[in-house]
Specification:
Low-confidence stretches: none
CATH topology of the largest domain: BirA Bifunctional Protein, domain 2
Radius of gyration: 18 Å
Distance between the termini: 45 Å
Bound molecules: biotin
Strand content: 25-35%
Order of helices and strands: HEHEEHEEEEHHHEEEEE
CATH class of the largest domain: Alpha Beta
CATH architecture of the largest domain: 2-Layer Sandwich
Structural class: alpha+beta
Length: 268
C-alpha cells in the first residue's frame, strides 16, 4: 500500500508541538494500512532517511511486539508510530528505557493519566495484575558492531478494541481509563516531544538524570516479587532497582541477579 496524505489532525498537532520536537516528525509517511510501521521505518532508514523521519499508520496487518509477539493493530484503535533515530554510541544502551519513560510522560501530559513504566519499557496502569497501556519495540541497524540507526516503534492502546479479548485482563486503553474520547494526534505529539527531550538528554551525557526519572516512574514496581524465565526454568526474586546500564537488579535467595533482557512477571 502507498502512503497517503497525513490527516490534518496530526499535521496540526505536530505543527503546534514543533518547537519541542527537534527533527522528530519533520518528515512523515502516513499509511491507512501497512504491515508494520517498524518494517517501513527500518527500510526507510536503510535507504538513508534522516533522524526524525516518522512512519504512522491507522492500522497494521503484521504489527510486532517484543519477544517475537504480535501487536494487535486494528484500524483507528491505537497509535502505531515508528521513528528513525541515529544515536551516538553512548546513547544506545538506555534508549528503549528512555522511550518508555517518554511515552509515559507524553500520555500524562496529554491526558493526565499517571501511567508508570515497568521494566524494561512497558507503560502500564496500576492494578493487580498491571494493565498494559503502551509498549515500545526498538530495532537497530548496524554494521561492524556500530549502530547506524535505531527505529523506535511506539504502540499505544487508545480504544479497548486495540487488543484482543484474550488479554483484556492484562491490557487497558486510554479511553477505557479516562471514560472519554482522546485525540490520537495530541497524545502522539506529546510522546514525541518527551522522546526528543529524553533522547537529547542521553546525547548530552545526562543518562543519570534520565534513569533517576525512570526510577521515579517505576517506583511502585520496586519491592515486588517478580518471576522470569531462564533456560533452567523460572526463577523469582524481589525487584530492587535498575543499575546504571538499565539492568533490573533482583534480590534472590542466592544473591543479587542482574537481568539485562527479556521481561518479568509480577507474582503478587
Ligand atoms: C511491546 O511488545 O510491548 C512492543 C509493542 C510495539 C508495537 C509498536 S506499534 C508501532 C510499531 N510497529 C510495530 O510493528 N510494532 C511497533
Amino acid at each position: 500500500m502507498n502512503p497517503t496524505s497525513i490527516p490534518d489532525e496530526f499535521a496540526e498537532a505536530f505543527a503546534q508541538a514543533r518547537p519541542r520536537l527537534g527533527p522528530l516528525a519533520a518528515r512523515v509517511l502516513w499509511y491507512d494500512e501497512i504491515t508494520s510501521t517498524n518494517d517501513r521505518a527500518l527500510a526507510w532508514a536503510e535507504s538513508g532517511a534522516e533522524e526524525g523521519c516518522l512512519v504512522l499508520a491507522d492500522a497494521q496487518t503484521s504489527g510486532r511486539g517484543r519477544l517475537g509477539r504480535a501487536w494487535a493493530s486494528p484500524a483507528g484503535a491505537g497509535i502505531y508510530a515508528s521513528t528513525v533515530l541515529r544515536p551516538p554510541a553512548h546513547a544506545v544502551g538506555l534508549l528503549t528505557m528512555a522511550a518508555g519513560l517518554a511515552v509515559s510522560e507524553g500520555i500524562a501530559s496529554a491526558t493526565g493519566l499517571d501511567a508508570y513504566v515497568k521494566w524494561p519499557n512497558d507503560v502500564c496502569m496500576p492494578g493487580r495484575p498491571p494493565r498494559k497501556l503502551a509498549g515500545i519495540l526498538a530495532e537497530a541497524g548496524s554494521t561492524g558492531g556500530r549502530v547506524l540507526h535505531v527505529v523506535v516503534g511506539i504502540g499505544i492502546n487508545v480504544l479497548p478494541g486495540a487488543y484482543p479479548p484474550a488479554v483484556a485482563a492484562r491490557a487497558t486503553s486510554l479511553e477505557a481509563e479516562l471514560g472519554r474520547a482522546v485525540q490520537r494526534s495530541t497524545v502522539l505529539a506529546e510522546c514525541l516531544a518527551a522522546l526528543w527531550r529524553r533522547y537529547s538528554m542521553l546525547g548530552a551525557g545526562e543518562a543519570g538524570a534520565v534513569l533517576a526519572d525512570w526510577r521515579r516512574r517505576a517506583a511502585s514496581t520496586f519491592g515486588r516479587r517478580v518471576e522470569w524465565d531462564t533456560p533452567a526454568g523460572s526463577r523469582t526474586g524481589i525487584a530492587r532497582d535498575v543499575d546504571a546500564s538499565g539492568a533490573l537488579v533482583v534480590a534472590t535467595d542466592s544473591g543479587l541477579v542482574r537481568l539485562t533482557a527479556g521481561e518479568v512477571r509480577w507474582t503478587e
